[in-house]
Amino acid sequence: MARILLLLLSAACLHTGNSAGYQKKYDYAVDQPAVLSGVQGGSIEIPFSFYFPWELANDRPMSIAWRWKHFHGEFIYNSTQPFIHEHFKGRLIMNWTQGQTSGVLRILNLKENDQATYFSRVFLQTTEGMKLWQSIPGTQLIIHGTKRIWVLCVAALFPSSFPCCSPQPYFFKSFSTTLGSPSIIPSAVPTTGLEDTRGQRNPSLLNLGAMVGMVVSKVVVIIPLYGWVIFLWSKQRPAEERLNPSKAPQC
Length: 251
Prior knowledge:
Layout: H1 2-14, E1 29-31, E2 35-39, E3 44-51, E4 62-68, E5 75-78, E6 83-84, E7 92-95, E8 102-107, E9 116-126, E10 129-134, E11 139-144, H2 146-157, H3 173-180, H4 203-243
Parallel strand pairs: 2-11
Antiparallel strand pairs: 1-3, 3-8, 4-5, 4-9, 5-6, 7-8, 9-10, 9-11
């Protein structure tokens, strides 16, 4: 179940963030989403696109590079050399081909220290010479650990019970909507024998059925989550007591 949840969260993370980019103040720019969230151990895709006014000079006029951490940070990828940073060896895939003005940078097996800001950089050989520019704000990548994911799942399903967790609203939007939307509940209620009694349906019974279905669906999900959170907490507690003997309970 943990693996299925990880895949669902990775898919939800993929669609988070503001992908509108900057308004077109110039004739050339690079657009990237402002923020993306990933799950430790999962994968993430950072989409990018660019536009320009110049005429290209030859058959292979484009080159793409990526930096991380800050605007003048280290290069982690270069399509010309080709080059991949040691930190991302075996975990970086560039989905882009020569001549395209959009693509995707995919990072596999996300690690905690992958959390940073990523900047795409474009090089062009034009009839007016070499042109290059880079995304200014970049894309901030937020990595959530497995333990925090379980806590945020519980908080997303029962926010009033966990006000201190404060999960990001964009992170679980699609996940919590799928689980908790009343619109998907009636389809699970059997309708056999109701075709000719349309005007005789009792709205209160339908509402009750929808409510029961919603409660049951949440209970089915929440019980394993609670159990897993308690297990992780109990497993972590002895380690904390070993590191802080003064805080251990005295007999």
